[in-house]
Amino acid sequence: MLSRSTGRRARPAYPVLLLLAPALLAGCAPGDRPAAAPSTVWDAPSATATADQPAPATPSASPAGPSAAPSPAPLRRVFPVRAGKVAYHPTHAAYPGTDIFADCGEPVVAVTDGTILEVSRVDRFDRRGPLGPYNGGLSVSLLGDDGVRYYGSHLSAISAGVDAGVRVRAGQQLGKVGRTGNANNVCHLHFGLSPKCTGHDDWWIRRGVVWPAKYLDSWRRDGNRSPAAAVTSWEREHGCPKAPRTTTDAG
């Protein structure tokens, strides 16, 4: 191609570009390169709800199902006589039971929460007989919520409102220490532990089938030892005998 002003042929620009290329490349040496723009970091969706997408539900604590309900508090148990001066012996004549000696008139209380099972407000004991059914004089039996029947006899009085079917709480007064029945004129509470069985006229079971002393020891020290396992074990082994094995004048 001829130049209009000089008449010379114009040189193509390609050699110039080729000469410039090394210089351009030299300007991108690692030490001289501009810092690359920070890459965009993608965040997962937050739990915040938007107008068109609600927040995801919070997973439950246990994927296997709803969390278990809290365990109920254990039943409270208290010593059956509320008095400063009490005494008892770990053994008893003829069958498992305990005589708790205290002054007449001292409060007799419910050992634990439960339902009154039987109440005797009349002293029908007669030394001429029969031996057994009326030995306890005035008495109360409580079916605890633990399934144990707690029996107390020889009372001098039964508290008003304490009747069969009535709910009571641990420590609630049921009556007063006395010497009715075959108490031999000695103020004390006969105390027995047994299963419910028939719950009526089974005096040979009601008077006691499990030795109470170790439980009384615990309750007197504000412990909470339960006789439920021992009573259940006895019932599993013996059932509910339909008649007494022995008849004695013990309360």
UniProtKB/TrEMBL annotation:
Organism of origin: Micromonospora purpureochromogenes
Name of the protein in its database record: Peptidase family M23
Assigned keywords, A-Z: Signal
Entry annotated with the keyword Transport: no
InterPro entries: Cell_wall_metabolism_enzyme (IPR050570), Dup_hybrid_motif (IPR011055), M23ase_b-sheet_dom (IPR016047)
Superkingdom: Bacteria
Bias-annotated ranges (Low complexity): 44-70
GO molecular function ontology, one term from the record: metalloendopeptidase activity
Any single Pfam family the record assigns to this protein: Peptidase_M23
Signal peptide: 1-28
UniProt cross-references to Gene3D superfamilies, sorted A to Z: Glucose Permease (Domain IIA)
Region (Disordered): 35-73, 222-251
Signal as UniProt keyword: yes
Limits of the M23ase beta-sheet core domain: 96-195
